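Backbone geometry:

***
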Amino acid sequence: MTVCMFSRSADGGRPCRGLLFACILPLVWPGLMCAAEPVPGLQIHGFATQGYVNTTDNRFFGDSEDGSFEFTELGLNASYRATPDVLLSGQLLSRTAGDMYDGSPTVDYALVDWNIANDQHRSYGLMFGRIKNPLGLYNDTRDVAFTRPSIFLPQQVYFDAVRNLFLSADGMHLYGRFHDGQGTLIVDAGVGSIPVDQNVETSYLGADFPGGLDSDGAAYIARAEYQTGDGAWRVALSAASATLAFDARANSPITSGDLDFTYWVASLQYNAARWSLTAEYMEEPVDFDGFGPLLDDRDSTVQGYYLQGSYLIGDNLEWVVRYSEGFADKDDRSGREMSASSGGFAPPHSFFQKDWMVGLRWDVTPDFMLRAEYQWNNGTWNLSRRENPIPGDTEKNWEMFSVLGSYRF
């Protein structure tokens, strides 16, 4: 049994392309070569998603004020049941998202899942490789449009601006599933190395300073979730903790320092026959140390939450509405103190965002889906600093219309 090991290239966390295909190809190639005679235990699936975004002001996933098609997701995944207890699986993903992601293929996940024990009351095992992080209700399935509750996940909890930081880690996870007559308890705990790219540096440090930001030591991830036997209730608590280290160059206005954060999410969902309610609450204490006066006083506790409802109008038509709020510092909800600490470079509305969203989902066929959504925003905290480098040029109140089509096979 071969285990794929991973490395990152020098451009800020993107895995080396040759290594990506070396890890994925052994899973995909047998199915491609033997389509007429399927390999027992092998499954191959994929998806293609294209979005369009138009905003009244500000940039979101490209030049959205003029209408942007710079949101594309292409995925190919495969799984192979090597033995009754060992599953190999992986996914190759190409993602274009405005100025943040350029569509270069990356390994979304590639892992070995060893199921150590399994009976009607319990199941537990070990996964190792590149593993999706079990955070909140949606992080580990966020790249498949069919599993998202909307075109874009609520940005106050699931940050697209630093998506890769929270998406997956290279390491190992222990998991357990425990069943009784009332419901199921699902527990995951993992340790690994997280990727850091330019999006992460710009979001956390506020600019692309001379030097490099990278993970420092292991990151720890865990989630405990309980589901009732009838599927009506889901409740979960998840968390991730990591340290990022900045290595400053001689001409950098900040010095080398460490950034520590703990990101945790409390989740609650109720599902009825035709409608569903979901609420999630997130906090992320962030501590800056050793960077010098420009950043060391920026310690804060990030806060975000949303309430979302969906209703099945027909068997293949769903209506969704959501309200979300998020703050760069829960003790400075107006953003005035953080604006003052930036010397006025970033206006107060750069440090909070509140929005309403309404949308429709139409499952045209079981494998083809269309969505349309409209969003009203107050504040610009969730906008990518790479796409909006001068916060003072952003508009506080702005609206967004988006449509998406997705096909899976």
